[in-house]
Give the backbone structure.
Amino acid sequence: MSKNTNGWNPVQKGLHWLIALFILFAWGSVELHEFYAKDDPMRHWWMVLHFSLGFSVLLLVMLRFYWRATHGRPTLYGSKLQRPLSLLVQSLMYVIMLGMPLTGLLMRQFAGREITLFWLFDLPPFVTKNIDLAKQLGFMHKELLWNALLVLLVLHIGGALWHHLIIKDNTLRQMLPFGKVK
């Protein structure tokens, strides 16, 4: 694994922004499904989109883990306190980006419900139905992990803006899709 001191490579940047968009769209799709009655086909359409985006996030995060393990990361900017805090926030975000799709998948599985992915195929339940466990996983997915992700996103974006506007270093610039490192 090599350390890239000049910035993230294009694959890492692309995965970062694609995952961010998919999370945003997954959130939007689950919110939009609430506007439709339970028997409206559009409600199901929005949930299929939600499941498909969540599954995509799971796959993309695993690809990002692989790419990061084989291609390293740029040098961290900031003080001796900021660097470990940045790594902690990023690590917790990775845990949540894996945990959200996994708890969503398991919640549906233990509820005894199939999951339609990409309007192409249905993933049938492969575990014994357990409604109590499904409810606990639902709480983790919808309340615990989602709210933790929101807090971490505020810290992540706030940290990037702090570095860009106050410290004026390359932290944000090196992750922008077309950012040039000074």
Summary: The chain has a mean pLDDT of 93. The radius of gyration is 19 Å. Residues 73 and 157 are 18 Å apart (CA to CA). Helices lie at 10-33, 41-71, 82-110, 131-167.
